From TrEMBL:
Residue ranges of every copy of the ABC transporter domain listed in the record: 8-256
SMART domains: AAA
Gene3D superfamilies reported in the protein's UniProt record: P-loop containing nucleotide triphosphate hydrolases (3.40.50.300)
Molecular function terms from GO: ATP binding; ATP hydrolysis activity
PROSITE patterns in the record: ABC_TRANSPORTER_2
Keywords associated with the record: ATP-binding, Nucleotide-binding, Transport
Protein's name according to its UniProt entry: ABC transporter ATP-binding protein
GO CC aspect terms: plasma membrane
Length: 263
C-alpha cells in the first residue's frame, strides 16, 4: 500500500510491560475508507495495539504513521486533533451528565473560542457553538438516540451507552476511528444495530475504521480486511474468507485438536 492510499501504517510495533511482551514487531496498513478488523484470542495484544495507535501507550519499538505523519511520539490529545478517534473496551461516559453533554465533550476540542468568548468574541463564539450543536444533532439523528438526548448517561442500558460513546467519538470528526469491542455484552438486536451504524459511518461518513471484535460472524460480515494477533504477533492478515480458512488462525483460536470445527 502506498503512503497515499494508507491512512495508517503500523511499522514493526513492539510493546513491553516489564517482563510481558504484549506486542512483537507488528506491521500492517489500513487504507483510507477501509473497515479493518483486528481479532485474536484473549490477551493477544489487540487493546495494546489500539492504545499504541491512539497514543495511550508509546511503543517500545517501531513507528505509527497516520496520514503520512509519524505520530509515535505524540500524546493522545494531539493524535485526536489530527483525526484519530476511539471508543474504549470499558465504557468511559460521564454517568451524571446528559447524553447531549456527553457528546458535546467529544466536540469540545473543536471549540476554538472556548476561552475567548468574552466581549470581542461573543458573536463568533455563539455562531460556533450553534454549528457545533447542529453537528451534534446530526450525529444524534444518525445514531437514532434522539429520544434519550436529555437522559443521564448513567441511567441507560448498556447497548445505548455504547451507542452514546460511539456518538461522542464521531463528534470529534475523526478520519479514523478505533472501536474496541463495540458489541461486547450486547444482545443480537443491539449487535445488528451497532453493525449497521459502523457500516454507515464507514460508507456514508467516510470514516476509516479499525475494529476489535470477538464475534466472528460480525467480523466476517462487515470488515473489508482482517489482521489476526496471537501472543502479541500478527499471525495472519487478509480478506475475511482467507482468514476463516487459515489453518494458523483456527489453531490459535481452538487449539490443534478442535481446529476442524471452525470451517
Ligand atoms: N497496562 C498493562 N500492564 C501490564 N500488562 C499489560 C497491560 N495491558 C496489557 N497487558 C498485558 O499485555 C497482554 C495483551 O493484553 P491486551 O489487553 O492488549 O489483550 P487483548 O487482545 O485486548 O485481550 P482481550 O481480548 O481480553 O481484551 C496481556 O498479557 C496483558 O496482561
Ligand atoms: Mg482487549
Amino acid at each position: 500500500m502506498s503512503e497515499e492510499t494508507a491512512i495508517l501504517d503500523v511499522r514493526a510495533v513492539s510493546l513491553q510491560f516489564g517482563g510481558v511482551r504484549a506486542l512483537s514487531g507488528v506491521t500492517f496498513s489500513v487504507a483510507k475508507g477501509e473497515l479493518f478488523a483486528i481479532i485474536g484470542p484473549n490477551g493477544a495484544g489487540k487493546t495494546s495495539m489500539m492504545n499504541c495507535i491512539s497514543g495511550r501507550y508509546t511503543p517500545t519499538d517501531g513507528r505509527v504513521v497516520f496520514k503520512g505523519r509519524d505520530v509515535t511520539d505524540l500524546k493522545p490529545n494531539q493524535r485526536a486533533d489530527l483525526g484519530i478517534g476511539r471508543t474504549f473496551q470499558n465504557l468511559a461516559l460521564f454517568g451524571h451528565m446528559s447524553v447531549l453533554d456527553n457528546i458535546m465533550v467529544g466536540r469540545h476540542h473543536l471549540l476554538k473560542n472556548g476561552f475567548l468568548s468574552g466581549a470581542l468574541y461573543w458573536g463568533l463564539a455563539q455562531r460556533e457553538e450553534l454549528s457545533h450543536r447542529r453537528a451534534v444533532e446530526d450525529i444524534i439523528d444518525f445514531l437514532e438516540i434522539t429520544h434519550i438526548r436529555k437522559a443521564m448517561a448513567g441511567t441507560l442500558s448498556y447497548g445505548l451507552r455504547k451507542r452514546v460513546e460511539l456518538a461522542r467519538a464521531i463528534a470529534l470528526k475523526p478520519d479514523l476511528i478505533l472501536l474496541d469491542e463495540p458489541m461486547a455484552g450486547m444482545n443480537l438486536e443491539e449487535k445488528e444495530d451497532m453493525a449497521r451504524f459502523i457500516i454507515d459511518l464507514n460508507e456514508e461518513w467516510g470514516i476509516s475504521v479499525i475494529m476489535i471484535e470477538h464475534d466472528m460472524g460480525v467480523v466476517m460480515d462487515i470488515s473489508h480486511r482482517v489482521a489476526v494477533l496471537d501472543f502479541g504477533q500478527k499471525i495472519a492478515e487478509g480478506l475475511p474468507d482467507e482468514i476463516m480458512s487459515n489453518p494458523r488462525v483456527k489453531t490459535a483460536y481452538l487449539g490443534e485438536d478442535d481446529a476442524e470445527e471452525v470451517a
